[in-house]
Structures are given as C-alpha cells and as structure tokens.
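=== Structure Prediction Worksheet ===
Name of assembly: unnamed complex
Input type: mixed (protein and possibly other molecules)
Chain count: two
Listed entries:
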Amino acid sequence: MRDVAIIGTGVTKFGELWYRSFRDIGIEAGLKAVADSGLAGNEIDGMYIGNMSAGRFINQQHIDALIADYSGMATNHVSCTRVEAGEASGAVAFKEGVMAVASGLQDFVVVAGAEKMTDIDDASITSILDDTADAEWEASMGLTLASLHAMIAKRMIHDGMATREEIASVSVNSHAHGALNPNAQYRKAIELKTVLNSGAVATPLGMFDCAPNSDGAAAVVLCPLERAKEFTDSYVKVASLAQTSDTLALFQRNSITSFAATVEAGKMAYARAGITPADISVAEIHDNFSVSGILALQDLGFYEKGKAGKAFLDGEVTLGGGKLTVNTSGGLKARGHPVGATGVAHIAEITDQLRNRADKRQVKDAKYGLAQSVGGTGSAVVVSILEAI
Amino acid sequence: MRDVAIIGTGVTKFGELWYRSFRDIGIEAGLKAVADSGLAGNEIDGMYIGNMSAGRFINQQHIDALIADYSGMATNHVSCTRVEAGEASGAVAFKEGVMAVASGLQDFVVVAGAEKMTDIDDASITSILDDTADAEWEASMGLTLASLHAMIAKRMIHDGMATREEIASVSVNSHAHGALNPNAQYRKAIELKTVLNSGAVATPLGMFDCAPNSDGAAAVVLCPLERAKEFTDSYVKVASLAQTSDTLALFQRNSITSFAATVEAGKMAYARAGITPADISVAEIHDNFSVSGILALQDLGFYEKGKAGKAFLDGEVTLGGGKLTVNTSGGLKARGHPVGATGVAHIAEITDQLRNRADKRQVKDAKYGLAQSVGGTGSAVVVSILEAI
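=== Predicted Assembly ===
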C-alpha cells in the first residue's frame, strides 16, 4: 500500500446560499483545491464525491456524473464515484479516495464533499436528515436526530457525566473559532447563556446546541506521497484512517453515553499511525449537537469519561487553551453542516493546520491532527489521522 | 496492488417482492455469498453496498449502517460503505471493494447490491429513475430515460445502424436466457413479434424493450488471490476493471449512437487485463433498454458499428450460438433490474460462469468474462473483466 499525501484544499463559504446551485459550489471547491495543489487539471485520473441526499434535496441523483461533467472531467472520461454514509459521507469519500491512490489504481484524485440543503423547507430538511436514523424503528415513531441526541444528553446529566453548562460550552467553543474562519456560516463568538437560553429543540438541547442546515462544499487533492514534491512544498501525509459501523438504531446499544464505533475507529487509527491520543494537537470532531462533542473527546481517548465537558467549559480545547485544540474551523455548529461536505471540510481544516495555513485559527507546532465524522447516532464513524511533513 | 479473487456469490430471486423488506433481501444475498465462500462471518473486515435510491424508494438513508447492523457485522464494528452511481451503483461498489482488498486495507470484503423499488407507485418509480438523467436540463423538460433511449434507437434506425427488428431481438435474447435462470423475474422465452407488438412506451420502444422495475439483491465475497485456496477450490480472479464518466445530459455528446464512456472503459479494461475482445466468451451487459444491448456490443469492440443488431437477431450471442454469449442471466430485461443490485448480479453471473456453476445457462470453456454497467445514458460506465483460475 502506497503512502498518500494531501497536496491541495478548497472550501467554499458555508451558509444559506440560495443564489448558488449544487453543481456551482461543488465545482468551486474542486477548482480551488486543484489550483492550490499545483496539478494541471488533465492530470487528475479519479474523483470521489461525498453527498448524503442530493436525490431528495435537489431531485438530482447520479451526481457523480453531474460533477464529472461540470468540472470538465467528463471530457477525459475521468471516473467519479459518489459515496454516502449519512452525515459521514464526506469522510467515507475521503477514505475511498485515499484507497484509490494507495492501491495504485489511480494517482491524482480529487475528493469533494457537497450538499445543498436550504432550497427546500425546514420540515422537509428535518425529515430527510431523520432518515439516517432507523426509518422503521426510530423515525417512523417520531424520533428525530435532535431528540435522539437529547436522550443522550439527558442520560449523561443523569449519570453525572456532564452538566447542562458543560454540554452547552461545546457550542461556545465552536463559535469562538467560527468567528475566526472567513468561510464559516456563523462568524460570531457567543456566551454560555446564549446557548442555555436558546429556544428548546428537544430538551435539554436548545437551538444553539444544534448545528444549522447549510449549503457548502469542500475538496482535497490526493497523490502518492513520493510524488507530492513535484507539485507543492506544502503537503501533509495521510498517517492512517479507520471506518467502523454500529447498530442503526440507538436503543440497540449497550450504552448511549459512548459511541462504540468511535472508540473502535479511534483505536484502529492510532494503532495504524503508531501514535497515541497525546500526540494529536488539533482535532475536528462531529459536533452536530453540542453533546456529540463531549462524546467524541471521551470516545477518542482524549479525556476520561466524565471529564471532557469540563475541558470545554474551561476553554481547555479552545485556541491557546491547552495541548489539544478542537474544531478550529468552527465545527459543525459555527462553520455550518452541509452534511455531505462536512467530512471533507474537516480534512481540509486539519491539512491547513498542519501546513501552517490556518491564519488566525492556527495551532502552533502541530505534528498530528485528527478528524472524526459520524453518521446517524454513531452508526458509522470514520477517524483519519494526518501528519505534518 | 494485490490481485483479488471472488470466492463466493449470492443472488436472491428478482421480482416484485412485496412481502420482503430491503434489509431482508440485502442480508439474504450477503449470507448466501458468505456461505458459498467458505469464510466464517467473523473474518469479514469490510462491506460495500451498491444502492441507487433507498432514500426515495423506502425512505431509508444510511443503509450502510442498516446493512452492517442487520447482517450482524455491526457487532464487530465492521466498516460498511454505500456507493451510488445511478444504475451503475452495484458495479462501482464492486470496484471499491476490489480496491479495498487490492490496497491491502482490508482482506475479506463482501460487496452487495440491493434495491427495493416496487413498494411505491409506478409513476414515482419512473420519476426517481429519471433523476439519473440531468434533472435541470433533461428531466425538468419531461425527458425520461425511456424517451432518451428511444431517441438513440430512432437515430440508429435513421442512420442505418440497426433495424427495429434487430433492436427488439436484444430482448428476445435476454428472455431466452432468463427462462433458464431460476432467480429471474421473467422466466419465459418470447418471440420477436411479442416485442414488436408490445404497447408503446416511447416510440419505437415498446413495453418489451424496457427492463422492468424490480426488487432484488446480489452479493459477492472478495479476498486476496493468494489466499483464496484457503477457503474454496472454486474462485475466479479479477483480471481488471475500469470506470469512466461522460456528460450527464445526452444532448451534449458528439454522438448518441455510441457511449464514449463504454468505449474508454472497455479499452482500459482490456489493456489492464492484457487481452482483446476476442478473448471474452461470456458477457453481462446493461440492457436497460433493448437498444442499449446493441450500443454495448459495439462500444465494447465485440462488433463493428452497425453489426451487433444482426448478431442478436441471428441468435449469434444466444447460448450455443457463437463464440460470445451475452446476458446468460437473462439480463436486465428478463432477470430483472433492481437498479443498485444489477451491477453486482452481473459479477455474480460471470463468476458462476467461469467456475462452471451456471447450470442450464453454462457457457463452455470460458476463460474470460466481462461485465458492463451503465449509469444514466452512458454518464458513468464500469467494465470489469474476470478470469477463470
């Protein structure tokens, strides 16, 4: 298996982009990433696209062909593959792209993630998102992703594993960083009381505990590590990645205050990279709901159970706070969460951190960075570890 | 890149399976394939699933997790990835699975394709299928996949490249073989006049020129070639595969009587396998409409332009007819076309042909077999070549 490098990144503005089309933002991210990589477009021999639900959001399926076509790649008949794994779609597309290069089947691969969510009404969006829960045993009973995560939060509070304030502070951390990210949907720092006083979505979670609906796209360019220098001096190595699964329905788990799929993916990724959580300086995690941030830091081995909430509340994972900085991009809560794009945006942010291109969000002297993406309520997890060169 | 073997196949009955659920048929195919392979279930370390549109057919997304869960694989947190490329979804899932093993990331991978189409009304099914055309420039104008293929057929007839009878004979070939396949949706041979007299769908294409809407699933098990003998004496080698793209909309092509994506994928696949079309004894091609069969045999280099129709009409590609036998499974027309399953069912059929397990459909002494899958109107194509061991 060949080592793989990331040699370019491209991210669009995230937000409610009513004036832009799906194909438009997908292509923007891809072109930015290719321009950044130093590759000529005709060198690209493979594309992957992470997308959760264009078939329902914009009535367009077969978006592999759509993107190949509108990027001009169809002229050369370049292969393009769409991957879906709920909200982890972008992360799984990244994994497939890395595999394509690692296997030797392809040399220069663009991985993009894109989603256009806000052209339809909010109730329809929620209904589509809830289809990543178990349609038969959860969604049909009225359960939503928000109410499922509210149950997790309630259980955490009940078990003394986190306080309401600690849970809310995950959103405060994301907004603190989002304020520094020009592409973020929400570029405003918020106070704890804003989260605590926000309108109830599913008690105890309020509006500010929930990532928004967003439009946006992100892309990265991959090539064999040994060839990266031909194109750029600014690249990172894919140290490892791991993908895991769990039951689709939350009620079938032994515990709902830990996602076993995250625990396993983390262990596999650390082992494959030959490092421990202590080696990671910067992490992008899947804070689709505030409480998910606490789950992630504990399940990934950064904090013991019951300790991650305090780290968020104390600002320990906020820029300048401690050894590990979390969600410098603004995370899903403040950067925005165009579901299929999120996993790739994570990778782009970690890449830019490790090559010192994160501007005001820059973490100092980071050697390793980690990205975690989650589908549904921990039903599919991808953990990727990148290494500065 | 490691060589990859197929060591097991499993296919469900195809048809209108109103009494069975998506998860049910997906699991049946997977379990059959694993049982056939000789692997113990707990050795499997990766799964891929080709599916076009569960989000719209059955309101269930995140079917990677659904299948991981219901197959029992989620207990071990085995990764499961869903791939979509319109009607080529199953074939692309197969390609990703082969890459996972070839890259060394995984050793024992199950690739399944599944679709449950017939639980909703026919108009809705058609609308979903048409979303693999260009939603903005084709489907919104009232174009359907049937009418797009009717235009191709008309142009072929106009250019003297095929007669109406030759086009119709593609369906006759598929039904002749479907009659021999116990899992086929339609197990009845038909006469040419049945196709010619069938009710118009989009002139010149009638009902019997069009593949049906179907439910069904298929699966294969992959492992490194050098390990295949540990599990079974009956396996085949993946000699090569290639995936290509083209414009999403048909009107943007230079020619509509040839799919350039098929031509390119074929060339790449032959080159990678080190063979020519003359080495292929058995082929499964994407006859979603009768006319597509003629396109496929010409674009894949089996016949010159304008000659494939006569081959179908003369029975040259029907069992016992000539050097190349086409769609021994019954093809999309007679075996049925559960869109996400079709590409994997193709691979299962070729595998079973090459290991002499195709019963009444068996082609003699086949060394190489080819499978072709198409998304939309030639917007994405996968060609795989398998080799008998």
